[in-house]
Amino acid sequence: MSKSFVILISTIVVVILVIGESLAANEPLIPKGCDCLYTQEFDPVCGNNGVTYPNLAILKCADKCAKYNIHQMHHGPCKA
């Protein structure tokens, strides 16, 4: 195999792993079985439950499927 082919394959593997990790990071924020569309844009918002969501769409998705009302308290991460 050529060196450039090995580098190409390695780069593709790394990109796939990074994308998969990014998608998995949002799973705990959204209840199991909740099916909604959202982007991977990072524009954090703080929910009234003290959880920082990566963006408003993910907060709204969590709200849609949560057993209680989740709404945005403010733009940006929640304060510790």
UniProtKB/TrEMBL annotation:
Tell me where in this chain the Kazal-like domain is found. Answer: 28-80
Q: Matching SUPFAM superfamilies, A to Z?
A: Kazal-type serine protease inhibitors (SSF100895)
Q: Which domain of life is it from?
A: Eukaryota
Q: State the Pfam families in the record.
A: Kazal_2
Residues making up the signal peptide according to the UniProt record: 1-24
Query: Which residue ranges does UniProt annotate as crossing the membrane?
Result: none
Keywords assigned by UniProt, alphabetized: Signal
In its UniProt entry, what is this protein called?
Elastase inhibitor-like
Q: Which species is the source of this protein?
A: Ceratosolen solmsi marchali
